[in-house]
Amino acid sequence: MSLRSRYARQVRRTFGSGYHAAWYPDTPHAIGAYGRMEDDVFIARGNIRDLGVQYDIDQDTIPSALELNASKGVAITTKVKGATNADLPHIPQASAGLGIEFKAEGSFAISAEEVYEDRIVNPGALEAQLRTLREQGKWDSSFRIVTGVLRMPVATILISQASDTKLELSLEGTLTPSIKELGKASVTANFHWESSAVMKYAPARNAVPIIQLHRLAPGFLFWPPRLRTFAMERVEAPGAEEMWRLVPDDEIPAELE
């Protein structure tokens, strides 16, 4: 299984089945982008405006902080400025710092002081236009559409490329050693040591690392196709390789629609 696939599955576990990882994490994904899922991540091939589809965006203007800062299996060790910590030997004593340990490949830590949740509006009008494209043979049932994004003006994104990876970093511009501080524009991270490779976006600017997708799903019997949330859920199969399935339309929570 590839790194991006493992990362995508960690994102779904952490944020919920209706959220998906954008790849690469610092690549802007615009609302209205359409494409296919490859290796568990969304790969854009264009924008539905290029197909003549019109839509409006509800652009969030009131930011919130990112509360889900790390995937399961990420452990944090801290050191305050002026102190020493035997577990963080590579961080200068004069600096506040962090040790971040990733238990699994694809584990991640994301920090952003400001997060905006933008969404497409009037999904009914969008659905009607996509039906027309489908009737004209211009829309493939495998296409997914970006209908919502978590937009972060400044963010730090760390993704482990191996299991049991640890890195040490110091922080400038703050006295508080925590992952949340990494997402502040006024804080600078200096990386001093890592046991294995870690993908580092520090900082990532105007990042859209998390997206929401919709699909034009087949209608029931003689009903026309419907615009539905594209959600995946983990299948519990003890002793078997991890599996995920498409959440059936009748099981998608109403708040995702």
Give the domain tally.
Answer: 1
Mean pLDDT: 87
| Number of extended strands | 15
Total helices: the number is 3
Q: Characterize the overall form.
A: elongated
The arrangement of helices and strands along the chain is HEEEEEEEEHEEHEEEEE
Separation of the first and last Cα atoms: 31 Å
Strand content: 35-45%
- Please state the CA-atom Rg, rounded to the nearest Å: 20 Å
Query: Biggest sheet, open or closed, and with what strands and sense?
Result: 9 strands, antiparallel
Low-confidence stretches: 239-257
Alpha-beta classification: mainly beta
Summarize the structure.
The protein is 12% helix and 41% strand. The chain has 257 residues and is mainly beta.
